[in-house]
Amino acid sequence: MTESAAMPSQSISPESAQRKVRISVLRYNPQERGSVPRMQTYELEEADGMTLFIALNEIREKQDASLQFDFVCRAGICGSCAMVINGRPGLACRTLTRSLGSEITLAPLPVFELIADLSVNTGKWMRAMSERLQAWVHMKQIEVDISRLEERMEPELAQKIYELDRCIECGCCVAGCGTARMREDFVGAVGLNKIARFRLDPRDARTDADFYELVGDDSGVFGCMSLLACHDVCPKALPLATQIAFVRRKMAGAGWK
Ligand code: SF4
Ligand code: SF4
Ligand code: FES
Q1: Ligand 1-lining residues (CB < 6 angstroms)
Q2: How does pLDDT run across 202-230, given as a tens digit for each residue?
Q3: pTM value?
Q4: Which domain holds residue 56?
Q5: Cβ-contact 71, 53 below 8 angstroms
Q6: Closest ligand 3 atom to Cα of 76
């Protein structure tokens, strides 16, 4: 056999070449007596189009049924599969293993209550934050008259509100945020984005003075260090840098009055 015949075919593109990936997962179950934090490594054959979500399912089905992680939609919509992927928060269902090296490290999102392994209780945190910020439309009209036509909204404004409503509450921005790591009561970029969203809504009766009461301190917009990790890691590419700057400017104005 000639040397060239022994070489792998040059026609196989790097994309289609099979490879093995090693996935190391930080495992710990605070509910389980005797459980200690440890790294556990799994090896598997990478398939075409494999996402981390698919890889984790394969591990759970074929290698280790005790591995815990969350998912619902598998389409980047529910936000439940967020985890720290090679040190950076992201969605497992939207991350191709091919986009990473063959050694992958996974850890649960910090800040949120750990359930076990890669599963965290983002819902509890998000609910507390939403209640604290009263994240719902405070209607100008208290009495609801169902026979009245809804107020019209200009399509451009509806589009702007929709843009901020795309948040899936995955928690990536909170997990990547230095302030959220230091202050338990910090509302995070997700909370500040909500304030920007309700401030835009003409149906919401609240004034800047009302919003100042909610986020006009260090647990709100003045606790933000503007390093913008939140903006960099948001899987929905929300314009968090612009929104935080906007809310800060408006709250600074409200504070002077
Ligand atoms: S703002 Fe982005 S990163 Fe933060 S919770 Fe919403 S979608 Fe996730
Ligand atoms: S810019 Fe503010 S909200 Fe975003 S990660 Fe930094 S401190 Fe957190
Ligand atoms: S499973 Fe819903 S966002 Fe990943």
Answers
A1: 167-173, 189-190, 193, 234, 236, 238, 240
A2: 999 999 999 999 999 999 999 999 999 99
A3: 0.91
A4: 16-120
A5: yes
A6: 3
